[in-house]
Amino acid sequence: MFVAEDIQGQKIWAQDCFTQQKGSWHCPSCKGQVRLKRGPLLAAHFAHVSLVDDCQSFSEGETAEHLSGKMLLGRWAKGSELEAYLPELKQRPDVLWGNLAMEFQCSSLAFERFVERTEKYIKQGYAPWWILGEKFHPKQRLSDFQKACCYYEPLSGIKLWLLSERTQTIQLCYNLQWHYQKGHLYERKNFQYERQSLRRILLEKPLASTDSIWGNLEFKKALAQKLLRCAEKILLLQERFYVQAAHILYLPDWCYEPSRYFFFFEEELLYLRWCVLHSHSYNQWFEQIDKILLKWPFPLISRTSILQKIYEESCLLAEIKK
């Protein structure tokens, strides 16, 4: 942490301290004792003497990347406050800029803790902006934590925000998609420090390009191969079709059409589409699928909104393909 409290409860910056004064500084969140750390590699900062107090504000640890990254964001967001403690939430965003709570995440966070922090922000009128460090820059497949940090808006599709403090750039991964052979695909836009204002970056809504190359027949072949390999996920999905007197490889052709919504459910979207054919309304369809959708790992995206879009898209595809 960059900011601590002295014995009078006044805030003090680590960069303004040059000598260690034992017992003089405390964490603004848990009130536990902190010590000053200075060195040639890390910016001056405070660290807990002991985490016995279980300080939730700084549970991830302060790596060099995290310290430098949140300092960069603080400079980028003119008039923001670093490590502003919010007593009503018992949380301390890395950077607070008006009602925007920036969280620069460089290490894994338990899903339950992520949801708790996100919901607290939203409930109190703050907009959480989760930005991921180098460790979480996406590769071929996204982890559950990366998925949890995704946002959605119609023009750009599914989005993920990244920060590279090394190159001083914010990166927007957008139009995130799932492909049956290639894994996760996306487009990327970079923003260099001091070349674009942070306010302008937040308003960016790049238009998603056309979908990736997708062949319905190739998709079915990939499914057949997974069945032959006895892939557990596909076997369970086929079992669901089987009890409904259907087969995953012999659905109406439109069920295999590409969609950005495969990102949320992967092959399971096939079952959601097939259920549309056996429902007379959205409510009836929702009652049927809600029994199987026990987990929604995207706390920053409205589950209801995405399901409505899937239903509408399925109805449109079924009508077009008649």
UniProtKB/TrEMBL annotation:
InterPro entries (alphabetical): CoiA-like_N, CoiA_nuc
Residue ranges occupied by any Competence protein CoiA nuclease-like domain in the UniProt entry: 62-204
Location of the Competence protein CoiA-like N-terminal domain: 20-57
Pfam families associated with the record: CoiA_N, CoiA_nuc
Superkingdom as given in the UniProt entry: Bacteria
Identification of the protein by name: Competence protein CoiA
